[in-house]
Write a structure and sequence with these properties.
The protein is α/β, with parallel strands linked by helices and about 600 residues long. It folds into 2 domains: about 270 residues, 3-Layer(aba) Sandwich (Alkaline Phosphatase, subunit A); about 170 residues, no CATH class. Helix content is about 25%, strand content about 15%. The strands form 5 sheets. Strands 6-5-4-3-7-1-10-11-2-12 form a 10-stranded mixed sheet, with helices on both faces. Strands 13-16-17-18 form a 4-stranded antiparallel sheet, covered by helices on one side. β16 and β17 form a beta hairpin. The two termini are about 40 Å apart.
């Protein structure tokens, strides 16, 4: 990462005043106790807009001292479903929490699905850990429903509550069993930092001397949101503005602009579905995007200071060497990419590729890993790090942390991320707060030897395929009619990853078919479903000529939707992998035969 020295110097002036704390002995004197975890989870933080380059304290304390995973993906690009995935180790189609508000999502849906007594903090307590949390937990966790029931599994907690969660200058927190308390007029992220330090002190001085897991979940760099009404009953009104920074950071980065990548406000529309109708942004919208971007960077300075405050306190307590410090975000963010206003909810790289950095015992220092990892992997990873047996129902797998294990995993680990979304997309900020429907899709991001691809199927049954090596900004959908050959000869099909597109698509679609309804081991090893006799562990293996007949069989169903829905409705989801024989036969009635040298284009688009 490139980090200007001037930025480092300027921001460090405003770092939290935690240096020079007196060294105190480890509580209990037990240097062999099980490791602790401090997990900082930001909200809506990008990778591809370079926000990490403006966080020098993160770089100093975590990136330089640990490992950065540059192919880490959220599997649903919006807050609540992503967080439920993170705390259950299950993809959203298995949690059935698929939106930010009821009826399909939010805290009430989390409760209704029975997770409050069966998710990460509960499991940790059962394994002998004390658990602490402050900041945002889930959307629609409100001043009215915070104790009906109270979130389970926490030794001590101090939650941000709707409708004030994203109100930077009017936050409301709720500590343990106490009534909610308003902090109107104070800068919310600074209040959060005080609470985080207080919970860390509680964890260190706990009477039972158990190891601890502390989660700190600031709202930055999420937009500032003024919410009127109760999101639980759908009666609320929401106004999004740019994030707000602390006064001490208001002057920073006056010349920063959204990176002018090739997909920033392009001359021609890109993508598929409703994105193809987006007009090019005018000069006023672009200028506002830059302002919104600067405000995100300024708001993130409080997070940067928070990281230093936590690390310095761990060091003062003599706990730093026995603590994993983890940094990530619930989802990514776009500003102007593909002509989009500020927001998330798309399957593209800006929204799904999110930061993940870890320092701690045995973790490689100043190292970047390029293995594919996802939010479904975080719960099993924490279990592995803390010596807790993995659960069979985890959809993800533990992420290796030592350099040797990472390099070994690069030869054998899963190479794909399954991505899914239901419901609306929302533009944020001054120029666009229009809710876009028909934003339901399934997608596959896959990266292996000789290929880097993104494949998606929308609920309108439009399809997208991008060669991310040649087209990393996802501007040229290879499945748009203008990109397709009308020839019936496989020799005239365009080649991708050295194979004709129909051949490649048959494998990608089959893998996505398995992933869209997978559970547990099926999610962890989806190729085993397609090749139960073994020998296929990656796309490269599946492309071998010996498997052509399997993927050309008419009984193999394609991913498609029956209709667009704003939540996970089985009747909308189309064929599932377990239905493949019946559905495949029905789908192909009267549609002719598959070509032996590749599928016809009209069968794919």
């Amino acid at each position: 990462m490139r980090l200007a020295a001037a930025i480092i110097g300027t921001v460090t002036l405003y770092a939290a005043a935690t240096h020079g704390q007196k060294q105190v002995p480890l509580v209990g004197g037990d240097q062999k106790r099980r490791p602790n975890v401090v997990f900082v989870l930001t909200d809506d933080q990008d990778v591809h807009l370079s926000s990490l380059d403006y966080m020098p304290l993160l770089k100093k304390h975590i990136l330089d001292e640990g490992t950065y995973f540059d192919k880490h993906y959220c599997t649903t690009a919006v807050c609540c479903p992503s967080r439920v995935t993170l705390w259950t180790g299950k993809a959203s189609h298995n949690t059935n929490v698929t939106n930010v508000n009821p009826p399909y999502g939010g805290y009430p849906k989390f409760i209704a699905e029975g997770f409050n007594n069966n998710y990460f903090p509960v499991w940790l307590q059962q394994a002998g850990y004390n658990t602490y949390y402050t900041g945002k937990l889930f959307n629609a966790h409100t001043v009215n429903n915070y104790n009906s029931p109270h979130p389970g599994g926490y030794t001590s907690s101090d939650f941000l509550l709707d409708p004030y969660t994203y109100d930077y200058l009017n936050s409301t927190f709720q500590r343990n069993g106490e009534p909610p308390r308003s902090y109107e007029g104070r800068y919310g992220p600074d209040v959060l930092a005080e609470k985080a330090y207080g919970l860390l002190d509680e964890a260190v001085h706990a009477a039972n001397n158990q190891p601890f897991f502390l989660t700190v979940a600031p709202i930055a760099p999420h937009a500032n949101v003024i919410m009127k009404g109760d999101p639980q009953d759908g009666s609320h009104e929401v106004v999004f503005t740019e994030p707000i920074s602390a006064k001490r950071h208001q002057h920073l980065f006056p010349n920063a602009k959204v990176p002018r990548s090739l997909n920033f406000n392009p001359d021609k529309p890109s993508g598929a579905n409703w994105l193809l109708q987006l007009p090019q942004q005018n000069a006023s919208e672009v200028a506002y995007n830059d302002h919104f971007y600067r405000q995100r960077l300024r708001a993130l300075q409080s997070v940067d200071e928070l990281i230093e405050g936590l690390v310095s306190r761990l060091e003062a307590y003599g706990l730093l060497d026995n603590t994993y410090v983890v940094f990530s975000s619930d989802n990514g963010f776009h500003i102007g990419n593909h002509r989009l206003p500020p927001g998330k909810s798309c399957g593209y790289e800006e929204d799904t590729n999110v930061p993940l950095a870890v320092r701690g015992p045995g973790v490689a220092r100043n190292y970047t890993a390029d293995i594919v990892t996802t939010h479904t992997d975080l719960a099993p990873t924490f279990f592995e790090l803390l010596g807790i047996p993995l659960r069979d129902d985890f959809d993800g797998t533990a992420i290796p942390m030592t350099r040797a294990d990472i390099e070994e995993a690069g030869r054998a680990r899963r190479e794909h991320a399954g991505i899914e979304y239901w419901g609306f997309a929302l533009g944020e900020g001054e120029f666009s707060q229009v809710q876009i429907e028909l934003n339901t899709y399934k997608a596959l991001r896959i990266s292996g030897p000789g290929y880097s691809l993104y494949y998606a199927v929308w609920c309108t049954n439009e399809r997208e395929l991008y060669d991310m090596t040649a087209d990393p900004y996802q501007l040229h959908n290879l499945l748009r009619p203008s990109s397709l050959s009308n020839s019936s000869s496989s020799s005239s099909f365009p080649l991708l990853a050295a194979h004709p597109l129909p051949k490649l698509l048959s494998r990608l679609d089959a893998l996505l078919m398995v992933l869209k309804s997978c559970r547990g081991a099926t999610c962890r090893r989806p190729w085993d479903q397609l090749h139960p006799s073994g020998g296929v562990h990656a796309l490269e293996d599946a492309l071998a000529a010996e498997h052509d007949a399997l993927y050309e069989e008419a009984a193999l169903p394609r991913v498609r939707y029956e209709f667009c829905a704003n939540g996970y409705l089985r009747e909308a989801e189309g064929p599932m992998w377990e239905d493949r024989e019946v559905v495949g036969r029905e789908r192909n009635k009267g549609k002719g035969e598959y070509m032996r040298d590749g599928l016809r284009w009209e069968d794919w688009v």
